[in-house]
Design goal:
Blueprint lengths: L7 E8 L2 H8 L6 E8 L2 E10 L8 E6 L12 E9 L4 H10 L8 E3 L2 E7 L5 E6 L22 E9 L3 H9 L3 E6 L2 E5 L9 E6 L12 E8 L2 H13 L8 E2 L3 E7 L5 E9 L24 H7 L7
Parallel strand pairs: 1-4, 5-8, 9-12, 13-16
Antiparallel strand pairs: 1-13, 2-3, 3-4, 5-9, 6-7, 7-8, 10-11, 11-12, 14-15, 15-16
Length: about 300
């Protein structure tokens, strides 16, 4: 399939105060802070991006830091786990680092031949660090004192909690993803094996979760396509499948279309182009507040109303 969806592009979640979010993802997980911008639909709220050193697709986690939103909890019909790739042999390093900062971790476990270390972020969102030598081939640097050797490379994948995995599985097959099998109740799908990041989606039957959306909840997951032509192909294909899907939305760093898959999870299909260095050099990512052109005339007001955020 010429327009096969390559893997995950980014994951977007909701956090509490932006400084606490920055301190965890940059200074504890050691991700690079790659973009300080705003929620295009809510301009007095930040939209914060973190990724690997080169801000490559498949590494970006983004947050809407709504400071006063109540705590969320996992719910059926949502993505509920963010899985990150680390090199084989790195789990002892990370356990020691988390212990140093008083961050509790669960016991490591093996699934589909990969070792996972579970923990929660500062807002309670579930994270798993996964040893994976294929993903470890991606070049990056560690931040916040994290060793380059053991640094997070980007996404390994994500877990979707669903009442019924069947129809979501059909969508992933339409995307060209391969069913890898079932283990411990999870059904795993993989994208192109040549894709080193964001290549797994696990479907977990959890019909009785009764959580609520809030701080620590995942808002949506985004899949990668290379360009506008591929995105247009998938928009037409998804319409023909009977789903409602948005028009193309310009997010400055990628173009996006959104639809809600049968299990309730909000899916996005995002382009790799133009990339995160379209409005600032790679070595300056995240240092300055970047606004879409239509908000520039309101910059002074926006800067006054946004919370203070120290990214040094």
């Amino acid at each position: 399939m010429s327009h096969k969806i390559r893997g995950l592009h980014h994951i977007t979640a909701v956090s509490g105060p932006p400084q606490e979010n920055f301190d965890f993802y940059r200074n504890r997980l050691g991700l690079r802070f790659t973009k300080k911008t705003i929620n295009f639909d809510d301009p007095f709220t930040y939209h914060l991006y973190y990724g690997n050193h080169n801000a490559t697709p498949g590494s970006a986690i983004t947050f809407f830091p709504w400071q006063h939103v109540p705590a969320g909890s996992p719910n059926t019909g949502e993505a509920t786990v963010v899985q990150y790739t680390i090199p084989n042999g790195s789990l002892p390093y990370w356990k020691e680092r988390f212990n140093k900062f008083g961050i509790e971790t669960g016991e490591p476990f093996t699934r589909f031949g990969f070792t996972h270390l579970p923990l929660n972020d500062n807002d309670g969102m579930k994270i798993e660090l996964v040893e994976d030598n294929l993903g470890a081939k991606v070049d990056t640097k560690g931040y916040g004192g994290v060793s380059d050797e053991h640094a997070i490379r980007g996404f390994f994948g994500t877990t979707l909690s669903l009442a019924d995995t069947g129809r979501t599985a059909e969508i992933l097959k339409e995307f060209g993803w391969k069913e890898e099998g079932s283990e411990a109740g999870d059904l795993r799908f993989s994208s192109n094996p040549d894709n080193h990041l964001g290549r797994f989606v696990d479907l977990r039957p959890e019909p009785n979760l009764d959580g609520q959306f809030g701080r620590g909840s995942i808002h949506h997951i985004a899949f990668r396509v290379p360009d506008d032509e591929a995105q247009a192909y998938w928009r037409e294909t998804i319409l023909k499948m009977g789903f409602e899907i948005t028009p193309v939305k310009n997010r400055d760093y990628f173009r996006s279309i959104y639809f809600r898959e049968p299990g309730g999870v909000l899916f996005e299909i995002a382009t790799d182009i133009p990339g995160f260095d379209v409005d600032e050099p790679l070595d300056e990512l995240g240092q300055n507040l970047k606004l879409p052109s239509w908000y520039e005339k309101h910059r002074d007001e926006i800067e006054k109303r946004l919370p203070e955020l120290n990214v040094k």
